[in-house]
Every structure is written in C-alpha cells, then in structure tokens.
Amino acid sequence: MTIVMPPQARAALTAACAVHLPGDPGYDAARTPWNLTVDQRPAAVAEPADAAEVAAVVRAARAVGLRVAPQSTGHNATPLAARGLDDAVLVRLGRLRGVEVDPVRRVARVLGGTPAIDVVEAAARHGLAVLHGSSPDVGFAGLALGGGAFLYSRALGLTANSLAAVDLVTPDGDLRRVSATEHPDLFWAVRGGGGSFGVATAVEARLFPLADVHAGLMVWDVSRAREVLRAWARWAPGAPDEVTTTVRLLRVPPLPDVPEMLRGRHVVVLDGAVLDTDERAGDLLAPLRALDPEVDTFARVPAAAVARLHMDPEGPSPSVSASATLSALPDEAVDALLAAVDRTPGLMMVELRQLGGALSRAADGAGALATLPGQFLLFAVAIAPTPQDATRGRGEAACVVTALAPWETGRHYLAFAESAVDPRTGFDAHAWERLLAVRAAVDAERRLAANHPIA
C-alpha cells in the first residue's frame, strides 16, 4: 500500500531535487525499472542531477521518516520491490551519467547512473578495457558494487575488486570518498556488499591495457547439446585463467532482425575471450573446435566488441530468472540439466558461466565479495510480458535450478539472484559478520533499502 505524503514531507523532498509522487503525471514512468516485470511502487521517486542533490534528498527523506532506495537502471529490481517500498524514496540515478578516463593512471571515474557501455567505449578510445558485465546497458556502478563477472573475470577477477574509490552518500546525507585509505572499512563493504551502505554517486575503476582480445562464439544445434556440454564441462575446470567462457541453451525467437540461420531455432551457443596470443588461444580452444561447430567467430577483435558479444537485450525488457553456483558439472548433472530444459519450454535461455581462476582466489585488498565459489554459475531466464508468463517462467527457472541441486555450492551470487533470497548466502561467515558491523556503524536505523540488504 502506498502511503499518503503529508504536505511538509512533499515540500522537503521537492526542495531537494526533481521528485515524482503517486498521482503525479511522471510517477509511473519514473518508477519503472529496466526489468518491466517489476511493479515497484515507492512513496516517491527522486531523480537527482548531481551528488549534491543526492545528498539533499537523502537528508530530506531522513527528516520526514522515509527510507532511501538507490537504483540506477533497475536490471535486478525484483528483490527490492518484493521487500516493499511504500515507506521509501526510490532514488533513480539515471541523470548522473558521465565518464572521465585518466589514461596515465589507467583509471575511469564513472558517475553513478552511467551504463556500462559508456565506460567500455570511453576506455577503448585510449586502448584500455574495463571489467564490464554481459549487459551493455546495466548501470556500471551497480554492477561493480554487486560483484561483476564476465569474460575477463577468470584472468582479472571481479569488477568490484577493480574499484579504486567510491563517492558515497551515507544515510546521514554526508558525501564521502571511500578508498583503501579513506574510510577503509566502508570501502571494503561496498565492494560486493551492494547498496546497504549508501548511494554511490561515482566510482573509480581501474583499467587494463587491452586494446584487442581474442574472442568470439561457437554455435551448435541443440541436438548436439549433450555432447557439447559434457565436453565443455570436462574442459572448463582445467582451463588456464586467461580463458573465460559461457555456454547457453538458447531458444532464438523468430524475429526478422535475427540472422536467418538462427531464427526460431534452439541452439547451443558458447562465447568467450582469451587474454593471450592468437596462437595460444587457438591451442586452448582446439578441444571445443573439435566438436565441429556450425559457426565459429573466434578471432582478434577490438576489446570494446566484447561488451556486446553475449547479445544481451538492450533497452527495457520483461524477464524472470533463477540462478545457482555449482561445485561441479559431471555427466549426470548435464543429463539432469537437459532433462529439465526439455520440461521447461517457456525458458528462453539456460546459461552456464565458467568460474574458477582469479574468481576463486582472494586478491590482496579485496572487498567483501573476494571470490565466487564453485566451478560454474547457472542462470535460467524466461521472457515474461504478462503476469501469467512471469508465474510460469519463475516456476520453470526454479525447475532447472532444482534439477542441479545435488551440485549446488550453497552460496548465491546475489547479483544474479532476482528474488528475495537470504543475503547471508552471498558471503562467507567472516565477511557476513564484518558486513553487519559496518552496516551497524553507518546505518544503525536501517534507513537504506537494498536489493539484498545486509541486516
């Protein structure tokens, strides 16, 4: 139920920045996240233009007894909405957009509402690369604070642990710069701990000297799925850190902008990147090429092209999903997965991401999410344009995860947990206790609302 906004509260919030309240003409558009299945109904939606306005709206919300829920794009808005926002101001950060690259220091300063593709392209102009995810239009700051794992991760680690500093408005409305030398406990917590500690108005991310990489994809008909998945699952755990891949069982929609050879088909798609020479990449990929893919595009490409290699949808989209981390993928697990896929025709995609490598080792100075457990990350997705589709899709995605339960690690990667799971499952016991202590120090009154709150 949406609360009625008292006049004094309305006045306080609207004095801080642009604010939309229930019943206002712009409220529905402002509250709508990227994931269109999510119906989030906050007490108000704030759209600050800069860090000063973020601080002002946080102070105003505190003064009138409302919580604050930061959100950039809303790719993973489901758990936030599920926990309730009728006593919260949703702070949408889309107007804070911009990137400044220091090519000498190899650092990008990224404003809090900037999509990842902007950072990728800005870095590429200097022959550099950032640790981005698979979605070009996900908010980079939100990606980084939640973890961030894609095709450079086995070599270079999580995006969170590439951060050099964060500009953070804490629940008292104070704007702080946090880094290894400034508020170091808070800096540790925000890197992987998510949005429970403040509103990130900017992040500084380290860049890497990658002007081009060996990357691409391979495609097989789904009739080859058992053979391909078994071979990949045997190959992946022993692959060196320099290679990161994903494999998807993909039901390609029959749309005119889809290549004709894929249109309307059910296929196996492997994509990946190798941070090594072309010759070395060829040797590493040889066991996969021996499976005789229909399509093989692996080659030397500009690093910026990797941001769209996974073909994630750009622009708002309605979807539901479920995920798990897996300790292994033996032949019987592959069989269980394929049997579950046969029972779930409404799923558009079932994906396995290769973990291990740098993701399994805590780097010096790492944040709260120092590692990702297991060998594989499982992710099942359904497109859900109607509530009925969403209900069916959640059930089918859960069916796939349940089928792989014997091989689960018991830990969630919260950035892929699009339901209100127990956030303790995202961290080891020591990290969780430390996160609780940092949260108690910075937000004892629990004024911040987050997708997966530290509480």
Automatic annotation (TrEMBL):
Domain (FAD-binding PCMH-type): residue spans on this chain: 38-210
Keyword Flavoprotein: yes
Signal peptide: none
SUPFAM superfamilies: FAD-binding/transporter-associated domain-like
Gene3D superfamilies: 3.30.465.10, 3.40.462.20, Uridine Diphospho-n-acetylenolpyruvylglucosamine Reductase, domain 2
Keyword Metal-binding: no
Coiled-coil annotated residue ranges, if any: none
Cofactor: FAD
InterPro entries from the UniProt entry: FAD-bd_PCMH, FAD-bd_PCMH-like_sf, FAD-bd_PCMH_sub1, FAD-bd_PCMH_sub2, FAD-linked_Oxidoreductase, Oxid_FAD_bind_N, Oxy_OxRdtase_FAD_BS
A molecular-function term among this protein's GO annotations: oxidoreductase activity
Superkingdom per UniProt: Bacteria
Alphabetical keyword list: FAD, Flavoprotein, Oxidoreductase
Protein name: FAD binding domain-containing protein
